[in-house]
Design brief:
By secondary structure, this protein is of the alpha/beta class. The protein is 44% helix and 15% strand. The structure holds 2-phosphoglycolic acid (PGA).
Length: 256
Protein backbone atom coordinates (compact mmCIF):
# COMPACT_ATOMS: atom_id res chain seq x y z
CA UNK A 1 0.00 0.00 0.00
CA UNK A 2 1.21 3.49 -0.79
CA UNK A 3 1.85 5.69 2.22
CA UNK A 4 0.33 9.15 2.47
CA UNK A 5 2.78 12.05 2.28
CA UNK A 6 1.82 15.51 3.50
CA UNK A 7 4.31 18.07 2.21
CA UNK A 8 4.42 21.74 3.17
CA UNK A 9 5.64 24.18 0.52
CA UNK A 10 6.30 27.35 2.47
CA UNK A 11 7.14 29.31 -0.69
CA UNK A 12 8.79 32.70 0.06
CA UNK A 13 7.25 33.09 3.51
CA UNK A 14 8.43 33.11 7.08
CA UNK A 15 11.35 34.31 9.16
CA UNK A 16 13.46 32.69 11.85
CA UNK A 17 10.97 33.29 14.65
CA UNK A 18 7.90 32.23 12.67
CA UNK A 19 9.65 29.12 11.31
CA UNK A 20 10.75 28.06 14.74
CA UNK A 21 7.21 28.42 16.09
CA UNK A 22 5.79 26.56 13.09
CA UNK A 23 8.20 23.63 13.33
CA UNK A 24 7.81 23.45 17.10
CA UNK A 25 4.05 23.24 16.68
CA UNK A 26 4.27 20.60 13.96
CA UNK A 27 6.63 18.42 15.97
CA UNK A 28 4.54 18.57 19.11
CA UNK A 29 1.33 17.97 17.16
CA UNK A 30 2.85 14.98 15.38
CA UNK A 31 3.92 13.41 18.64
CA UNK A 32 0.24 13.41 19.66
CA UNK A 33 -0.75 11.27 16.66
CA UNK A 34 -0.44 7.59 17.45
CA UNK A 35 1.97 5.60 15.33
CA UNK A 36 0.07 3.47 12.85
CA UNK A 37 0.27 2.43 9.23
CA UNK A 38 -2.04 5.36 8.45
CA UNK A 39 0.21 7.99 10.06
CA UNK A 40 1.42 10.00 7.08
CA UNK A 41 4.97 10.96 6.23
CA UNK A 42 5.53 14.68 6.77
CA UNK A 43 7.83 16.95 4.81
CA UNK A 44 8.52 20.68 5.00
CA UNK A 45 10.13 22.77 2.25
CA UNK A 46 11.37 26.06 3.75
CA UNK A 47 13.10 28.84 1.82
CA UNK A 48 16.82 28.10 1.26
CA UNK A 49 18.28 30.47 3.91
CA UNK A 50 16.43 28.60 6.65
CA UNK A 51 17.29 25.03 5.66
CA UNK A 52 20.09 24.72 8.21
CA UNK A 53 18.03 26.05 11.12
CA UNK A 54 15.02 23.92 10.24
CA UNK A 55 17.25 20.88 9.83
CA UNK A 56 18.57 21.40 13.34
CA UNK A 57 15.09 21.84 14.78
CA UNK A 58 13.62 18.71 13.14
CA UNK A 59 16.57 16.48 14.09
CA UNK A 60 15.24 13.36 15.81
CA UNK A 61 11.64 14.04 14.74
CA UNK A 62 9.62 12.42 11.96
CA UNK A 63 9.62 15.62 9.90
CA UNK A 64 11.66 15.47 6.71
CA UNK A 65 13.35 18.35 4.90
CA UNK A 66 12.92 19.36 1.28
CA UNK A 67 13.94 22.18 -1.05
CA UNK A 68 11.55 24.21 -3.17
CA UNK A 69 13.81 24.16 -6.22
CA UNK A 70 17.16 22.78 -7.33
CA UNK A 71 19.64 23.65 -10.04
CA UNK A 72 20.09 21.24 -12.90
CA UNK A 73 23.82 22.08 -12.87
CA UNK A 74 26.35 20.44 -10.55
CA UNK A 75 28.50 23.54 -9.85
CA UNK A 76 30.09 26.57 -11.43
CA UNK A 77 29.06 29.96 -12.77
CA UNK A 78 25.35 29.92 -11.93
CA UNK A 79 24.86 32.95 -9.70
CA UNK A 80 21.98 32.56 -7.29
CA UNK A 81 21.47 28.84 -7.93
CA UNK A 82 21.78 25.92 -5.51
CA UNK A 83 23.15 22.56 -6.58
CA UNK A 84 21.66 19.18 -5.70
CA UNK A 85 24.83 18.25 -3.79
CA UNK A 86 24.53 21.39 -1.65
CA UNK A 87 20.94 20.53 -0.80
CA UNK A 88 21.89 16.97 -0.03
CA UNK A 89 24.62 18.22 2.30
CA UNK A 90 22.07 20.46 4.04
CA UNK A 91 19.92 17.43 4.81
CA UNK A 92 17.30 17.73 2.09
CA UNK A 93 15.87 14.36 1.14
CA UNK A 94 13.32 15.85 -1.27
CA UNK A 95 13.27 18.72 -3.77
CA UNK A 96 10.30 20.16 -5.62
CA UNK A 97 10.90 20.38 -9.35
CA UNK A 98 8.72 22.20 -11.85
CA UNK A 99 6.34 23.89 -9.44
CA UNK A 100 3.90 25.89 -11.56
CA UNK A 101 5.25 29.15 -10.11
CA UNK A 102 8.73 28.19 -11.34
CA UNK A 103 7.32 27.32 -14.74
CA UNK A 104 5.12 30.43 -15.05
CA UNK A 105 7.18 33.12 -13.29
CA UNK A 106 10.73 31.94 -14.01
CA UNK A 107 10.28 30.42 -17.43
CA UNK A 108 11.22 26.86 -16.55
CA UNK A 109 10.51 24.62 -19.50
CA UNK A 110 9.58 20.97 -19.26
CA UNK A 111 13.07 20.09 -20.56
CA UNK A 112 14.69 22.13 -17.81
CA UNK A 113 12.41 20.56 -15.22
CA UNK A 114 13.41 17.14 -16.56
CA UNK A 115 17.08 18.09 -16.15
CA UNK A 116 16.44 19.23 -12.56
CA UNK A 117 14.62 15.96 -11.88
CA UNK A 118 17.61 13.94 -13.13
CA UNK A 119 20.12 16.10 -11.24
CA UNK A 120 18.23 15.73 -7.96
CA UNK A 121 17.98 11.97 -8.34
CA UNK A 122 21.67 11.68 -9.14
CA UNK A 123 22.44 13.42 -5.83
CA UNK A 124 20.22 11.03 -3.90
CA UNK A 125 17.38 13.52 -3.50
CA UNK A 126 13.80 12.43 -4.19
CA UNK A 127 12.36 14.80 -6.79
CA UNK A 128 8.75 15.86 -6.34
CA UNK A 129 7.73 16.48 -9.92
CA UNK A 130 4.93 19.05 -10.10
CA UNK A 131 2.56 18.94 -13.05
CA UNK A 132 -0.71 20.70 -13.73
CA UNK A 133 -2.83 22.63 -16.18
CA UNK A 134 -4.03 26.24 -16.19
CA UNK A 135 -7.73 27.08 -16.18
CA UNK A 136 -7.52 28.06 -19.83
CA UNK A 137 -5.95 24.71 -20.71
CA UNK A 138 -8.60 22.83 -18.73
CA UNK A 139 -11.45 24.77 -20.34
CA UNK A 140 -9.99 24.08 -23.78
CA UNK A 141 -10.07 20.35 -22.97
CA UNK A 142 -6.28 20.10 -22.92
CA UNK A 143 -5.68 18.91 -19.35
CA UNK A 144 -4.47 15.44 -20.31
CA UNK A 145 -2.32 16.71 -23.18
CA UNK A 146 -0.60 19.20 -20.87
CA UNK A 147 0.06 16.63 -18.14
CA UNK A 148 1.25 14.14 -20.74
CA UNK A 149 3.76 16.62 -22.15
CA UNK A 150 5.08 17.48 -18.68
CA UNK A 151 5.47 13.80 -17.79
CA UNK A 152 6.92 12.84 -21.17
CA UNK A 153 9.82 15.27 -20.80
CA UNK A 154 10.89 13.46 -17.62
CA UNK A 155 10.18 9.97 -18.95
CA UNK A 156 12.17 10.66 -22.12
CA UNK A 157 15.10 12.05 -20.15
CA UNK A 158 15.27 9.73 -17.12
CA UNK A 159 13.20 6.69 -18.09
CA UNK A 160 10.32 5.04 -16.27
CA UNK A 161 12.65 3.39 -13.74
CA UNK A 162 13.49 6.80 -12.29
CA UNK A 163 9.84 7.39 -11.39
CA UNK A 164 10.16 4.62 -8.81
CA UNK A 165 12.47 6.94 -6.84
CA UNK A 166 10.31 10.03 -7.25
CA UNK A 167 7.03 11.58 -6.14
CA UNK A 168 4.58 13.26 -8.50
CA UNK A 169 2.39 16.18 -7.46
CA UNK A 170 -0.65 17.07 -9.52
CA UNK A 171 -1.38 20.74 -8.94
CA UNK A 172 -4.00 22.34 -11.16
CA UNK A 173 -2.72 25.90 -11.52
CA UNK A 174 -6.25 27.29 -11.11
CA UNK A 175 -6.50 25.72 -7.66
CA UNK A 176 -3.20 27.04 -6.27
CA UNK A 177 -3.68 29.76 -3.69
CA UNK A 178 -7.17 30.50 -4.99
CA UNK A 179 -9.32 28.59 -2.50
CA UNK A 180 -10.77 26.82 -5.55
CA UNK A 181 -9.89 23.21 -4.78
CA UNK A 182 -10.39 20.54 -7.41
CA UNK A 183 -13.19 18.24 -6.32
CA UNK A 184 -12.04 14.79 -5.23
CA UNK A 185 -13.48 13.40 -8.48
CA UNK A 186 -11.74 15.99 -10.67
CA UNK A 187 -8.43 15.32 -8.95
CA UNK A 188 -8.90 11.56 -9.01
CA UNK A 189 -9.51 11.64 -12.78
CA UNK A 190 -6.15 13.30 -13.41
CA UNK A 191 -4.32 11.15 -10.86
CA UNK A 192 -5.74 8.07 -12.58
CA UNK A 193 -4.66 9.47 -15.94
CA UNK A 194 -1.10 9.95 -14.64
CA UNK A 195 -1.01 6.39 -13.36
CA UNK A 196 -2.34 5.06 -16.68
CA UNK A 197 0.37 6.96 -18.60
CA UNK A 198 3.02 5.39 -16.35
CA UNK A 199 1.34 1.95 -16.47
CA UNK A 200 1.84 1.86 -20.23
CA UNK A 201 5.58 1.71 -19.51
CA UNK A 202 5.75 -0.19 -16.22
CA UNK A 203 2.78 -1.38 -14.17
CA UNK A 204 4.79 -1.88 -10.96
CA UNK A 205 6.25 1.62 -11.06
CA UNK A 206 2.80 3.07 -11.79
CA UNK A 207 1.27 1.20 -8.86
CA UNK A 208 4.01 2.19 -6.43
CA UNK A 209 4.59 5.88 -7.06
CA UNK A 210 3.04 8.40 -4.66
CA UNK A 211 0.95 10.99 -6.49
CA UNK A 212 0.12 14.02 -4.33
CA UNK A 213 -2.62 16.54 -4.97
CA UNK A 214 -1.91 20.23 -4.47
CA UNK A 215 -4.11 23.31 -4.72
CA UNK A 216 -5.96 24.85 -1.76
CA UNK A 217 -5.84 21.72 0.38
CA UNK A 218 -7.18 22.46 3.88
CA UNK A 219 -8.10 20.48 6.96
CA UNK A 220 -11.71 20.26 5.87
CA UNK A 221 -11.15 18.97 2.34
CA UNK A 222 -8.06 16.80 2.85
CA UNK A 223 -9.84 13.59 3.85
CA UNK A 224 -12.13 13.72 0.80
CA UNK A 225 -9.16 14.15 -1.52
CA UNK A 226 -6.76 11.71 0.15
CA UNK A 227 -9.53 9.11 0.37
CA UNK A 228 -9.57 8.78 -3.41
CA UNK A 229 -7.88 5.64 -4.73
CA UNK A 230 -5.08 7.35 -6.67
CA UNK A 231 -4.40 10.32 -4.35
CA UNK A 232 -1.55 9.67 -1.93
CA UNK A 233 -1.33 12.88 0.01
CA UNK A 234 -0.92 16.57 -0.60
CA UNK A 235 1.46 19.39 -1.44
CA UNK A 236 0.27 22.20 0.77
CA UNK A 237 1.00 25.90 0.32
CA UNK A 238 -1.06 28.39 2.32
CA UNK A 239 -2.22 25.88 4.91
CA UNK A 240 1.36 24.77 5.63
CA UNK A 241 2.24 28.11 7.24
CA UNK A 242 0.33 27.63 10.48
CA UNK A 243 0.97 24.55 12.58
CA UNK A 244 -2.72 24.08 13.42
CA UNK A 245 -3.78 24.25 9.77
CA UNK A 246 -1.04 21.89 8.63
CA UNK A 247 -1.68 19.47 11.48
CA UNK A 248 -5.40 19.39 10.63
CA UNK A 249 -4.41 18.02 7.22
CA UNK A 250 -1.99 15.50 8.73
CA UNK A 251 -4.68 14.41 11.19
CA UNK A 252 -7.25 14.04 8.40
CA UNK A 253 -4.79 11.76 6.58
CA UNK A 254 -4.13 9.72 9.71
CA UNK A 255 -7.83 8.85 10.05
CA UNK A 256 -8.05 7.26 6.59
P1 LIG B 1 -1.90 26.26 -1.96
O1 LIG B 1 -0.50 25.99 -2.73
O2 LIG B 1 -2.08 25.11 -1.01
O3 LIG B 1 -1.70 27.57 -1.27
O4 LIG B 1 -2.96 26.29 -3.00
C1 LIG B 1 -0.13 24.72 -3.17
C2 LIG B 1 1.19 24.77 -3.89
O5 LIG B 1 1.44 25.74 -4.64
O6 LIG B 1 2.03 23.87 -3.74
Amino acid sequence: MRKILVAGNWKMNGDSAANSELIGGIISGLSGIADSAAKPDVLVCPPFPYLAAVREQIAGSDVQLGAQNVSEHPSGAHTGETSPAMLQEMGCTYALVGHSERRALYGETSEQVAAKFAAALAAGITPVLCVGETLQQREAGNTEAVINEQLAAVLDNSGIGAIASAVIAYEPVWAIGTGMTATPDQAQDVHRFIRVVLEAQDADVAAGVQILYGGSVKGDNAAGLFGMPDIDGGLIGGASLKAADFLAIVEAAATL
